[in-house]
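REVIEWER CHECKLIST
Item 1: Sequence provided? yes
Item 2: Single chain? yes
Item 3: Sequence as submitted:
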Amino acid sequence: MLSKLTIAGFHNYSDGTLWDNLSLPEGISKESFINEVLRQASEFPLLYPDLDFMKYQIGEFSKKWYHNFERWYAAYTAQYEALYNVDVKTTFNDDAKDTDNDLKHFDMKRNSESNGKSGGKSEGSNKGHDNKGKAAYDTGAYANVESTSDSAFSSLSSSESNSLSTSESEYHSESNSHSWEHSQTSEEWKRGNYGTTMSQELLLAEYNAWLFNLYEHMAEIFVSEFCICIYQ
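Item 4: Structure as written out by the authors:
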């Protein structure tokens, strides 16, 4: 019987440390991957029969396939409706802003001044003399028996002064500020079967998609790179 160093032998010999450099994306079970590799290839000889070198190569295998495994897992766990061939969400954003500042200014000042002065002066004098005469009994000549003298003086003086001063001042300021802002977000969904594919075809495609097993496919890649597939 041909003696061979298998993946199961290395796993047991290293007490599981063979997989120390194995790195898988978040969500993928490292334990499930190792068990699937052992299930598929436990009796196959290894391409590199050196433990330390095999550990190193497993680390490099992780780096090379990490992004692929990550994308496969994302697709494997995606949520969708199996019978929909359209599932689209469109988002509309409507933003508007209006700002209006209006400043009105009115300044008026009026001054009015009126000055007036009037005056007058009046003076007058009046003087009169009245004599009464009477003739004597035995003579024909008149002799003053009574004399009256009137003298009058009047003086009138008037003065008037008028002064009018008017001052008016008016200031008017008006400020109008208007600000308007509007934001609206709306979403429109297009979902369902738009008639391009029958629902039975979509259902069959869903069935075939789930025939794919992520861990089985990853293990197959590992075995193809590190194992010599000998069937007895």
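Item 5: Key structural point noted by reviewer: The chain has two domains: 7-85+199-226, 107-173.
Item 6: Recommendation: ____
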